[in-house]
Amino acid sequence: MTKAAISIQHTPEKLFFRLYQASNISLRRVAKILDEFNMSAQQLSILGSLSRPGFQSGMTVSEMVNYLLVSRQSLNGVLNRMEEAGYVRRLVNPDDQRSRRVVLSPLGREVFAKMRPRLLEFYRVSLSELSEREQEDGIRSLDYIIERMTRDA
Asked: C-alpha distances in angstroms, 38 versus 10, 31, 98, 130?
């Protein structure tokens, strides 16, 4: 087998290992910032989800499960802790009285607004060697991988 064939053969494994490494490094670095706010990465993902433009009226738990790609059980545990801490509220969904919409509380908005500049700086520095086009290509590639894995699950 040629060196090129070996390289191509191991590319998927190498790519997934690099994703694993990047995820671990990112989570460790972000955790240092989040520790100052007594916040977990899971809680950050929820605050970020609810802080997106167009989501001021919140999201249902089902929408959050689909967006974050987590289990309902795991999400409910994190939401319970966040509700107890005052970061989110669960309100009756006006579109379906049987379900609840999760919305950011004023405290949740305030905490996210305080931590976000630090997180954005970390992201900026981490990606500073990549052009905007390269970053967009990376997003498209990851979107494809995620779509393929969720479709085949």
From this structure: 40, 9, 32, 31
57 and 103 in contact (C-beta within 8 Å)? yes
Strand 96-104 relative to strand 59-60: parallel, antiparallel, unpaired? antiparallel
Task: Look up the pTM and report it.
Answer: 0.86
Alpha helices in the chain (DSSP H): 3-35, 41-51, 61-68, 72-85, 106-126, 132-151
Contact assessment for residue 6 and residue 48, using Cβ atoms and an 8 Å cutoff: no
Look up tokens 């090129």; give the residue: 4
Q: What is the CATH number of domain 3-151?
A: 1.10.10.10
Q: If residue 37 lies in a helix (H) or strand (E), which one and from where to where?
A: none
Residue 10: per-residue pLDDT: 79
Residues 113-126: tens digit of each pLDDT: 999 999 999 999 99
